[in-house]
Design a protein that fits this description.
Elements: H1 10-24, H2 31-41, H3 48-59, H4 68-89, E1 93-94, E2 97-98, H5 100-103, H6 106-122, H7 129-156, H8 164-189, H9 194-221, H10 224-227, H11 233-236, H12 242-250, H13 253-262, H14 271-283, H15 286-304, H16 312-326
Antiparallel strand pairs: 1-2
Helix pairs in contact: 1-3, 2-6, 3-4, 3-8, 4-6, 4-8, 7-8, 8-9, 9-15, 12-15, 15-16
Amino acid sequence: MTYFSNMLSIEDYRKEFVYYLNRFISPKEPRNLYDPIHYILQLGGKRLRPVLTLMTAEIFDCDYKKALNAALSVEVFHNFSLVHDDILDVAPLRRGKETVHEKWNINIGILSGDAMLIIAYQLFENYESKTFQTLAKLFSKTALVVCEGQQYDIDFEVRNDVTNTEYLKMIEYKTAVLVAAAMQMGAIIAKASLEDQNSIYEFGKNLGIAFQLQDDYLDAFGNPETFGKQAGGDIIENKKTYLYIKALEFSSDKGKQELHDLFSLSPNNSVHKIERVKQIFLTSGSAEATKNAIEYYTNKAFSVLETLNISENKKNVLKQFGTQLMNRDD
């Protein structure tokens, strides 16, 4: 992992965050409320959002330690959304382990998720009043937009006419705004100018869209051993991702019908279905179009860097981070 000037490496930010997270977690009563929270928070994951909060604070010349509570808030909220998403999706596994509602039950999953949302807000109380107010306002706006994105995602499951524009809006709301807010929180704690706060938000948002499109692409074409998810999981679940929407757009009437037929089957992991859909994604040009979209949003994020009042060296830090994120295979 690359080291950047006086800043920590991505891996070191992650380690510092996990150390802080582990100190935050301690046994509490009632156990059936708090144990599921500790369970989901310790399941791992990339810790992308909290790392971005810490990194952004340092980009704007603030000690990352001052941003640890905000980073923790972002991570608690993200995991809260996963607990409730898994209930909505009736998902048995999360990061290869039992989901909270499977390990305990649905009622406990709902209540523990509710407590996580409250804890996420509570963490802002560690900041002085003006910073607290700014963080809480951004958080409230973001949390509501994430819920809107989740609802769009649910609505799309029963529609066959979802457009590219609608899909991109959904992933912006469901995924990208939290990446953007995580970065803006670091800038708020560093007392960066409003202009820089807004620019770093835009950088995070565009990177977040590229990140989700990359996730969609890797779900179909990534190496399942490094990606950590079942190969073709979205295809099995009939999810209408960017790949699917573009394939429909580029296919003949016959090709469109075949895709509709394949995606109208009950969720199943038939090897034939997965391989045939992947073949259509490749031959229709959909796979290539998705890679182009990933590159477009990554470059859009990078173009925002020109407006930031930070050194060229720090712009390169963000650029290298974005490049590493988009060249990942997991």
